[in-house]
């Protein structure tokens, strides 16, 4: 299922290059928009999708959730963390992405489920730069997950303006796990 979500988010980004370009140029997060685009794609596959489902016995809400044809329940947490790398044509930012990565780690643990999915779109990334993997491996280590960059992530290059300026974005999706934590 993580590969399906990874593929669907990749399709959404490719199909909506103009919208993504606006977000990239301004370093605007787009989680809310992405949530509904993904819900729409999942519904077209015939999954029973709900946006902002409440966690059992908690005030928190999943960004999305759905049941598959075998009645497995899949909650999804989405993130669209922006980076602070300098890229020509993109608004400068000095705010570190540390808190964005911490929120991905927190959501992964908050899911506390073998069926829980975490998906994020990390942007902007300098073209062909692999420094972003440091953040992926931090998530892997702190969440104690068996995930892999090649298996769980996809890199897309986006041309975001009329001057042909471009950057990469990284889309990742993986299953959480049962942590036996108590939130």
Compact overview of the structure:
The chain contains six helices and six strands.
Notes on the structure:
The chain is α+β, with helices and mostly antiparallel strands. It has one domain (2-175). The chain is built from 6 helices and 6 strands. It has helices at 2-15, 17-26, 31-44, 98-111, 133-143, 149-152; strands spanning 48-51, 64-67, 73-79, 117-125, 153-159, 166-175. Strands 1-2-3-4-6-5 form a 6-stranded mixed sheet, sandwiched between helices.
Let me know the number of strands.
6
**What low-confidence regions span 5 or more consecutive residues with pLDDT below 50?**
none
How many domains in all? 1
Radius of gyration: 16 Å
Count of DSSP-assigned helices: 6
Q: What multimeric state do the chains show?
A: single chain
Largest sheet: 6 strands, mixed
Termini separation: 26 Å
Q: How do the helices and strands line up, and which of them pair or pack?
A:
Blueprint (H helix, E strand, L loop, with lengths): L1 H14 L1 H10 L4 H14 L3 E4 L12 E4 L5 E7 L18 H14 L5 E9 L7 H11 L5 H4 E7 L6 E10 L8
Parallel strand pairs: 3-4
Antiparallel strand pairs: 1-2, 2-3, 4-6, 5-6
Task: Give structural attributes.
single chain; 183 residues; alpha+beta; six-stranded mixed beta sheet; 6 helices; 37% helix; globular
């Amino acid at each position: 299922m993580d590969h399906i979500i990874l593929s669907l988010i990749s399709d959404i980004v490719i199909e909506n290059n103009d919208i993504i370009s606006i977000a990239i140029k301004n370093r605007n997060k787009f989680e809310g928009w992405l949530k509904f685009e993904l819900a729409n794609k999942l519904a077209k596959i015939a999954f029973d999708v709900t946006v902002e489902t409440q966690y059992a016995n908690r005030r928190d809400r999943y960004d999305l959730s759905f049941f598959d044809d075998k009645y497995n329940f899949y909650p999804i947490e989405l993130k669209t963390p922006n980076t602070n790398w300098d890229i020509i044509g993109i608004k400068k930012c000095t705010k570190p992405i540390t808190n964005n990565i911490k929120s991905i780690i927190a959501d992964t643990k908050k899911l506390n489920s073998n069926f829980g999915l975490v998906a994020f779109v990390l942007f902007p990334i300098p073209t062909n730069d692999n420094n972003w993997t440091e953040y992926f491996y931090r998530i892997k280590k702190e969440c104690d997950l068996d995930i892999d960059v090649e298996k769980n992530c996809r890199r897309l290059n986006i041309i975001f303006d009329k001057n042909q300026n471009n950057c990469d974005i990284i889309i990742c999706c993986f299953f959480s796990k049962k942590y036996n934590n108590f939130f």
